[in-house]
Write a structure and sequence with these properties.
It comes from Lentibacillus persicus. The chain is of the alpha/beta class. It contains 16 helices and 5 strands.
Length: 329
Amino acid sequence: MKTWSETAEVQPLASRIITNSIQKDRLSHAYLLQGERGTGKEAVALLLAKSLFCTKRSGVEPCQECRDCNRIESGNHPDMHWIEPDGQSIRKEQIEYLQKEFSYSGLESDQKVYVIKSAETMTANASNRLLKFLEEPSKKATAILMTENSSSILPTIRSRCQMIDFKPLNPQAFQQQLVEHDVSRSNAVLISALTNNLDEAIAWSTDDWFAQARKLMVQLIETFSSNQNDVFLFIHQKWLPHFKERTQQEQGLDLLLLGFKDILFYHLGKTKDLVVFEQNDTRIENLVMFFSQEKLLDNLNKLLDAKRKLKQNVNPTLVMEELIIQIQG
């Protein structure tokens, strides 16, 4: 999404709210962009910054060609600051540095913009620092916070921001996009359940690591049903060595969620909604015989709890071991 007109096709509400404010010169001093990963939050943050800095703007649309637009696009504008998690969280020192930067005049204008990605990862001290910053806004400072989970952000911070919800993208339309980029239909269905980012989805479709991750997920679920005594061995010999990074570990849990959802959908007769297994796959027929609907719902809740623990920086090996015990129990 490079323009507001393109954004209006994908996220009409977000586009309308922001462009109306630009037209009326009534932009908020702080925005909280909330939505799933890949729904366009970062693209909108860039567009808003360009609209604020561009000196050749046509109506609400930035020119995309001037020095300011190009530097914002490349992440090199001196008066636009990006804050991202340092490791697993955004620390107080990062917000303090931001406050120090904003105590100076803009290098090229009075306008300053700061973007905080994954705002839900702010530590308690960082959140309190940011709250003080938001309570004393500069007329020429615009804050853009982005999150997948606004409920994890301090209510006092949320109350000082204009919240804009980003709706999930249409999965069928996204799947068709992937097919047009030579992704197989079965891969397109699975990948569209994990991301809405086109570039990322195309990369996954040719990634051997992702293909192996999908295979391991199915093998783990089958091991639960065929030989529970081998599950711990499987986790330590195959699962944990493959899912090494934190993002990979979260993706592994996402894949397990989809696998167990498929079995539940098969129970309910919703075979058209399957994303991991094919409708005529004998493996899922065997799994349906082993996992009851009640057990599947319990497994899904346990997986969501495991995802929360990973977000809280709990040791991933302990998270997986506890999850295995709970599913086996």
